[in-house]
Design brief:
This protein is mainly α and 136 residues long. It has a domain at 3-79. It has 6 helices and no strands.
Length: 136
Amino acid sequence: MTLPLLLCALIALTSGLHFGRRFAQAHAAGGNLALPALAHGVIVTPLMILTVVLDPTTAGLLWMAVATTALGGLTFGALRPVREVTPAVVLAPQRLADTPHPAQHPAQPGAQHAAQPGAQHAAQPGAQHAAQHSAA
């Protein structure tokens, strides 16, 4: 078997495993089963034609090896168990209960202003304006 024929067989195997998995997922979801099989056929048909053209043997039967590899890949891909995909969980660092909040840390200059009375109203835009109109 030459390198191009080996590549044809490996591409057929990879395609079979991929679309076999898609076939199993469609079967589990109750979807259309023909789409993964047709997509695999679209990829494997030119590979088999290329194998017939490039076959150096006198018998010319290497296309059967590629066809067997393609069907075996599709079968094994469909029989592989379908794993449920769980979304990735992003873990943020958790603050310990005994550590102070950054606004309460005395080394930060913003913490001194937040501790002064009336600083909360000054931090909110329009709070003094609303206080003036409510008093009037």
